[in-house]
Amino acid sequence: MSNDGVYEGAHLDKDDPVLKTRGLEKAFGGLVATDDVSIEIERGTITGMIGPNGAGKSTLFNLISGFYEADAGSVFVNQTDVSDMTPPERAHEGLVRTFQTPRRLEGMSVREAMLVGPGPQTGESIFPLFFSADDVTREERANLEQAEELLERFEISHLIDQPSTDLSGGQLKLVELARAFTTNPDILLLDEPVAGVNPTLANDIKRFIRELNEEGQTFLIIEHDMPFIMDLADPIIVLDQGRVLMEGSPKEVRTDDRVIEAYLGGAGP
Amino acid sequence: MSVATWVNDTLVRDPTERRIFATLAIITALLVVGVFAGVIGPRFLLFQVALVGMYALLSLGLNVQWGYAGLINFSVAAFWGLGAYSAALLTAPNSPLGMGLHPIFGFLAAIVVSALVAILIGIPTLRLREDYLAIASLGLAEVIRLIILNERQWTAGSSGISGIPSLLEWLPLTSAATTASIVVVLLALTYLFLRRIHRSPWGRVLRTIRSDEDLAKALGKDTYRFKMQAFVVGSVVMAIAGAFYAHLNLYIDPSDLVPLTTFYIWIAVILGGTGSNRGAVVGAAVVIAIREGSRFLNDIAFIGNLGLDVAPLRLLFVGILIILIMRYRQDGLLPPKDELIWPSAQKESSAASRGAAASDGGVVTDGTTSGGPSDGGENQ
Fold first, then answer.
1. Per the domain annotation, does A136 fall within a domain?
2. Which domain holds residue A10?
3. A134-171 CB burial, b ≥16 within 10 A, e <16
4. CB < 8 Å to B344, chain A
């Protein structure tokens, strides 16, 4: 797997990988969705992940974040083996993801929805609500302040009292990004952050991701919108038929014959 | 202060809620007038108050599970029965256990037993999709009923347990007044407890789980722990209601553990407004009003002359009421209104923002397909 001279896929043995997978495999019945995937995400990068439909991007996300159990292989966050951890435990290790089609939080305002992010909160256990109420108050105030600042920064502070159910798809994606950021993650996995988002808002999202990245936030982003991801991410990992086809700069990816083949030529042998 | 905000937020801003509270006030006033006019026996009315209180406790318990966390529990009657039988077996001198202990031990046993059963049923089901708890709880309800019915040497089976002592007999009140006061106190304490844990980060995570459990997991919330806590808290509240009922009715038998009891509580929660504590209480009152009130329909001359036994049709009335609510007020009579944010952390401006939220809520209700036509019609 890690005999790097022969390995043709992703670039391994990076200096400081915040996320690392080794030989991840997952099959659904006879269909191999993820086939021996080993990747590394260097700290401080925005890494893109592309591939034709059915290439196994979402499955890989689910394996990394723990929503699927891998048939084989392991996942490391900050060099810690998280392979046997549940999704919330992986989140505590610093690996936080968003979803391709976020459900709207029924009966919750944007303010409330934002406050779910930080954690673990003292007030999330029952006893402190009665016996250390002051700590709960202090934390809640700080979290409220952080939520308001982030919404302001993402230029959606006017939405704070809106019910989550009233948001447009694009606004929801922004709130999701802001909320995911409140968890203070080491790496953020974004699943199609601009799918179904109008171009203006998509540009805003791109700008915010870039700003957060300049402050040191690492991203791994699945995206179908080629101009968006080619402009934003470097390096880019290309998946095809459950395998890593290649990894490289946007330019290398754009001109690689195998990538063109995968997207245009279909999956034939 | 808080009363003033309540008046301001509810009675001034929300006309529908104003009408609901006005109706409730009129009905209460009529009942009191009825007592003074000698039409309604005070003993009877106090017994009804105690029943409403007990149902309200059950609804509050189910509201924690279904309303807060989205857990589908079809064994409300079973947890209620566990509480009632714990109290009856320990306190009644002629129960099969024949211990005749002080009622406080009955309540403690109810809490412990229901918590244990909730944990046992939660361990295998709460990690799975929500439907598994629904199925398992259906089974649990029948299992507990059949055990109580058939294990006569422990539970006295279908002959039931009588001779359960009344509570606080030393109080200088009639026994009806005593039980009614006790349930009011129990209800108030439970209500305050639940409100505190609901308007908090804890309640917020539960509401997130209810909408999108995967999202909660992705944000690092151990959803299994939260669901287990909600399930246990709700079940314990139901068992307390059961223990209280044993001391209210002074007799208990397995016929009350039928699924119909569970069904009534679900109706109460849905009628009142899923996720809303005050809704659960009001929903319970409405269900009891229909259940008990329909007994007297035959006494009304006009209906009596129809030559029709109307009382057994009470389920029909409940059904019609549900349809009306679903049509005209989809979120229940008093849907949840508060933001689940720790109250003492909200800023000075919170009153203003709460007002804004409340008016937003009104807009939303108008926007929904069901609420739109009726509200619009009344405004014109």
1. yes
2. 1-103+186-269
3. eebbebbeebbebbeebbeebebeebbbbbbbbbeebb
4. 133, 137
